Amino acid sequence: MDPRITPVDSSMLYYYVAVGTLSSLVFFYWSLDLHYFLRLGIVYVNARLFKKKSHILDNLKVAGICLTTDVDHLLTHMNNARFLREIDFARADFYQRTGLYGAIRSKGGSVCQGSSTIRYRKFIPLFSIYHIQSKVIYWDSSNIYMEHRFISPGDEFVRAIAICKQRVLNVDVEDIMRNLMSTEKCPGGPEAGHSKPEIPLDLLRWMECNEISSANLRNGC
After folding, report:
1. Domain contains 108
2. 43-95 residue pLDDT tens
3. Model pTM?
4. CATH number of the domain that 132 lies in?
């Protein structure tokens, strides 16, 4: 310690450092959703370093728990918005483990959420554990369609199911998926039974609904 600093001065210095640190944390929590970014970072690191790589058509699972920060105004179960937020983390895990995000970025592309729909079947109670199962169900030249299921581990009941359209920019999705499904990327490739899925009927109808909505908006309806 600098001999010119008295014990009183050093105590004040520690006080100002502590107050400054606490004030900075409060400011960032107020201005940014730090918990979201911290959780997303943990998901990326965990998927990249500690989980095994998976095929692009695999059905991948992540676990979650409904905490007090997730509940609705009744304080008993997860609120509706949290389901879509949890899908963000499940999708980040999927992108890393399958190499999908890296493949898109390597071609100079980017990806964003185009649209989503979710059906709630049964609420997720406070402090209960659930699994999110995520898989690619279809793709075209510009979009990747994913299904996410919220499942209770005890009875395997599907509590909610969501379909999301991921819009891929500046790159051909067919080329990306063909590369990820190749023999070099996945031993066995198409010979192992991996091929482009047929479009599910519910997805087809949802895509038609989105087209009608887009046409209405273009026509000023």
Report:
1. yes
2. 999 999 999 999 999 999 999 999 999 999 888 999 999 999 999 999 999 99
3. 0.84
4. 3.10.129.10
